[in-house]
Amino acid sequence: MAERSDAARNRAMIVDAARELVAESGELKLSLVARRAGVGQGTLYRHFATRDELIRALYDQEVDDLVALAHSLLGECGPDVALERWFAQLAAYARVKLGVIAAVEASVWQDISAQTPGKLAEALTALLDAGREQGVLRGDVDARDVILLSWFLAHVERDEWDERTPRLLSVLLDGLRVR
């Protein structure tokens, strides 16, 4: 049965509020999420019985958005520009991911993150393949290489994020481009 439009809207507002709070402070208190989303506690708990369920939904949405963005960008611009814009969104996702990691116990995190490499690899493969076909991206780099290289995002401190992340992404992109 399809979710009612008001229920779907409430769910989306709850996930968006959780994304904002995690990115701001890394802390995820359900009472704050409900307040930020403009819904009551009961509405929040109807959608997400536990904090871990909300975190899983947030994380899944971020990954799904990244995958969809890769394909969308390939329809809008050249593959090297698409990859650059995709990396910018990956960095925003990594900022949320840091908050998610801080909010979740290690055992729950392993379960939540197990699906990520496959989904991101599919998106990256599409971007890299398009770039190789047009001769603008290296042919000797695969999605796993890029995923491993992008893990630096998990180690950039909040106070240096705005300065350091764009520079590091630029170095990564320069290394992927054909010379």
From TrEMBL:
Q: Which residues form the HTH tetR-type domain?
A: 8-66
Q: Which residues bind DNA?
A: 29-48
Q: Name one GO molecular function term.
A: transcription cis-regulatory region binding
Entry keyword set: DNA-binding, Transcription, Transcription regulation
Q: Which InterPro entries match?
A: Homeodomain-like_sf, HTH-type_TetR-like_transc_reg, HTH_TetR, Tet_transcr_reg_TetR-rel_C_sf, TetR_SbtR-like_C
- Record protein name field: TetR/AcrR family transcriptional regulator
Q: Which organism is it from?
A: Mycolicibacterium hodleri
